[in-house]
Amino acid sequence: MSNDNNPFNILGSDKVPQPGGKAVQEENKTGDLNDRIKNLISSSKIFLFMKGNPEMPQCGFSANVIGILNAMNANYSTFDILSDMDIRQGVKEFSNWPTYPQLYVNGQLVGGNDIIMEMYEAGELESFLK
Amino acid sequence: MVDFSTVESLIKSHIEDAVVNVTDLTGTQDHLGIMIISDAFMGKMLIQQHQMIMDILKEKLGTNEIHAVQLKTMTKEKAKAQGLL
Predict the structure, then answer these.
(1) What is the CATH number of the domain that holds A34?
(2) Cβ(B15)–Cβ(B38) under 8 Å?
(3) Which of A16, A32, A61, A73 could in theory staple to A113 by disulfide, Cβ–Cβ 3.0 to 4.6 A?
(4) Is a pLDDT exceeding 60 seen at residue B55?
(5) Is B47–A114 a contact, with Cβ atoms under 8 angstroms apart?
(6) Over 70: is that where the pLDDT of A14 sits?
(7) Searching chain A, which residue's CA lies closest to the CA of residue B78?
(8) In this structure, what are the phi and psi dihedrals at residue A57, rounded to the nearest 5 degrees?
(9) Of the given ranges (A1-10, A96-105, B24-33), which has the lowest mean pLDDT?
(10) Structure confidence at residue B54 (pLDDT)
(11) Residues of B in contact with A98 (CB under 8 A)
(12) Closest CA–CA distance from residue B24 to any residue of chain A (Å)
């Protein structure tokens, strides 16, 4: 059955949403905290600091952003800020942004749940992730 | 707990042309929904727009006068398109 007449294809897409997230850990926890944060962010074009991991988010907002990224078939890496208090505090200061999740694209902070949601609903997110 | 007109004038003291609308999200006057319409946002990404406002509100958030905010920022053009101006 082609996607045109498949009644289950409500997204009108030939792509099925699929989990494209990979939780990463630091290889080296020594050194300057800002360098550690930069190394994490630059490890993937799309990088998410979140509570928990893509399979098991520990917060509704993190889960929501994961859902959006998966719906866009994005490939991304995540870091669980609950696993490291230094990173958890450090990223807030690094980005001048007080809450999690935080989504980075090409090393730039794009937003937390509210902003990602707003961009997604306005149809502005997809071009951003490409 | 914070007086909404204080929040409004605080934002306006930094962004002159701002149209500010404060909503009480929880009935406790410390979880605020704040809509800000200003051309100071022109050409800026949403995250930068929100950061501008968060910097202004930092003090009030630090003292817990405001516990949490949900922001909606937009340029006048965008607000007009949505029928908000």
Answers:
(1) 3.40.30.10
(2) yes
(3) A61
(4) yes
(5) no
(6) no
(7) A122
(8) -65, 145
(9) A1-10
(10) 94
(11) 54, 61
(12) 17
DSSP strand pairing (A102-105 vs A46-50): antiparallel
The residue segments making up the domain with residue A101 are 21-129
Amino acid at A35: D
Phi, psi of A84 (to 5 degrees): -150, 105
Domain count, chain A: 1
B46: closest CA of chain A, how far (Å): 7
Instruction: Please report residues of A whose CB lies closer than 8 A to that of B71.
Output: 114
Q: Which residues pair with A14 in a beta bridge?
A: none
pLDDT at A5 over 80: no
On whether residue B63 sits in a domain, the answer given is: yes
CATH number at residue B14: 3.30.300.90
Among B35, B41, B46, most A C-beta atoms within 10 A, so best to mutate, is: B46
How many angstroms separate the CA of residue A83 from the nearest CA in chain B?
Answer: 24
Those residues whose C-beta lies under 8 Å from the C-beta of residue A79, and which sit 6 or more positions away, are A23, A24, A25, A40, A47, A48, A49, A50, A87
Mutate to test the interface with A, among B32, B47, B64 (most CBs of A within 10 A): B47
